[in-house]
TrEMBL record:
<dbReference type="InterPro" id="IPR025528">
    <property type="entry name" value="BrnA_antitoxin"/>
</dbReference>
<dbReference type="Pfam" id="PF14384">
    <property type="entry name" value="BrnA_antitoxin"/>
</dbReference>
<protein>
    <submittedName>
        <fullName>Antitoxin</fullName>
    </submittedName>
</protein>
Length: 69
């Protein structure tokens, strides 16, 4: 390992704009268990599965049919 490194020719990360933003979200235990179960089957972290599902809903403009009693 070198003592000094030259970063003068370094470039910015072109993927930096696509990085994820950390938030806090409260989910019920059943939802978490559902995605954790799927994550064990497919080998993808459950947070990534939740993100993929939400992204799919957003890109397909899917909306919930909510009716309050």
């Amino acid at each position: 390992m070198r003592k000094n490194y030259d970063f003068s020719g370094a470039k910015k990360n072109s993927y930096a704009a696509a990085l994820k933003k950390q938030i806090t979200i409260r989910l019920d235990e059943d939802s978490i268990s559902y995605f954790k179960g799927i994550s064990e089957e497919v080998g993808i972290p459950y947070q990534s599965l939740i993100n993929l599902y939400l992204r799919d809903c957003a890109t397909s403009n899917r909306k919930l049919n909510l009716k309050w009693a």
